[in-house]
Amino acid sequence: MKITDTPPADVGAADRPPVQKATVTDPARKRRDVSGSTLNVFSHGVLILWAFMVVMPLLWAVMTSFKDDASIFESPFSLPDKLHFENWSRAWSEAHMSDYFFNTVIVVGGSLVGTLLLGSMAAYVLARFDFPGNRFIYFLFVGGMSFPIMLALVPLFYVLKNMGMLETIPGLILVYIAYSLPFTVFFLTSFFRTLPSSVAEAAMIDGASHTRTFFQVMLPMAKPGLISVGIFNFLGQWNQYMLPTVLNNNPENRVLSQGLVELATSQGYKGDWSGLFAGLVMAMLPVLAAYIIFQRQVVAGLTAGAVK
Amino acid sequence: MQHGKYRFIAGFLGAPLALYVIFVIWPFIQSIYYSFTDWTGLSPDFEMVGFDNYSRMLEDQIFWDSLGHSLLFALLLPLVTLGLALFFAFMINVGGRRRKGAAIAGVRGSSFYKVAYFFPQVLSIAIVAVLFAFAYNPNEGAINGLLRAIGLDSIQPQWLGDPDIAIWAVMAVMVWATVGFFVVLFSAGMASIPRDFYEAALLDGASRVTTFFRITIPLLWDTVQSGWVYLGILALGAESFAVVQIMTVGPGGPDYSTTVLVLYVYQTAFRDGQAGYATTIGVALLVITLAFAALVMRLGRRERLEF
Questions:
Q1: Among A151, A157, A219, which would you mutate to test the B interface (most chain B Cβ atoms within 10 Å of its Cβ)?
Q2: Which single residue of B34, B124, B132, B197 could bond B279 by disulfide (Cβ 3.0 to 4.6 Å)?
């Protein structure tokens, strides 16, 4: 990250060239023999504009979460007079954001472990064993990636209802796992194919069972693939909105995204906008922090999913 | 040994396959069956009604409205998003001032842009929708506040409340949320294009615009194409459901002006208690999604032969 590399002078140059002319032409003349300098100024201008459009709403939300209600409307763009931390504590406890947070951690934690375990088991078998129906099962899994989930949701609602798992956390975990399997199996199958088979064979000759070979030899070797697909699934499951909206209407079991929408609807009536923004930033911060810290892995994990 | 192998395969494949079949495959098959019934979803009794639901769907104005909006999303969202992303990625990787010895260069701070642009991608679409629903609020929201602040008091649109504007306001949010991902994706693709190609073209007197259309786009075409399918499926499915359901009044917008197919399925099944008819609309959605993917693949192949 080179934040300091973006010279503020170029913003001015792109936005209002006539006013800033005196300061800008001088360095520009020096560069004139170097082709592409106009393009350079132009591209910086456009890029900074979009960066501004992306970052500002988020910073604005953080800033607003520390304001009191009156100043949100009177002076929406000014800094808060003081940091109103009571917005945060109100959202955390009274608006139940802590409960939603806790539910999300349980649901995503359970789903993530389940998805990686079951997904890698299925992918390992599909990638390395020949048996009748192998291709059929593989395409059955992979085909699920292209179907609109909404079509299945109506019957799925009643499948869960009949099993007594509607509006329960275990039910939601099983559904998350099932809907994460297509991509996970697809990704890990091609990953297991690339691993050398000699190591697994050596383990077998030493007398390890298939199960033991998988857990003690192959799974540790597949760690990079598991991390990529794990990040992909973590973000997808943490941010899931449609599945819990349909399958989980019990207020006790709401996840973060649902809880936030609920908060937005109810605060709209109560007029507690500062509390809403505190809740919004609360829901936003964990993933943003994770992204900034693990930026490289997140980008690699997500883009690996899209290209292959 | 052989016996042990099959027992192992069955043991490892059993649980994931069972879960997948029960929660994904079986509901899919059921939904096609239910689309021929008059099931309400509330009681266990229903009857086969043949193609009644399908003929009803063809005469349902709300269905046609939602279909129109869904198709608009599926066509326009990829066009705008991928177009912007290609433009930004090209700027970041090739738009920089030429330095000594290098034919092309990225702008300074390119890694900062890639980090910042990717931000919205990690956020839940629900969070994004709530944030922008507030920003669009005509009296109290930030966007009209900004317009007032720069002296444009006369322009105070109702945004989500105006049937003519609402759908564009919603789509702008979807573009905002998805561009960054493709900037990063295309940047990675552009970084792997050999520098010699650009050098050769620039030596021959090609402008940067020419290199963009003649070198960058053709070599990135596969990535663009899979991005197109991916975005189209998003726009037909989960993403448009979340933004429209959360952001627009109703939900579905004033006078159904922003409703999309996936939201209409949800409302028909769970609000109106017409599960059979809802699955019929769902089947239509499935057909459209598959047709869309096939169409993009087909058009994409032709396009690629031109170069």
A1: A151
A2: B34
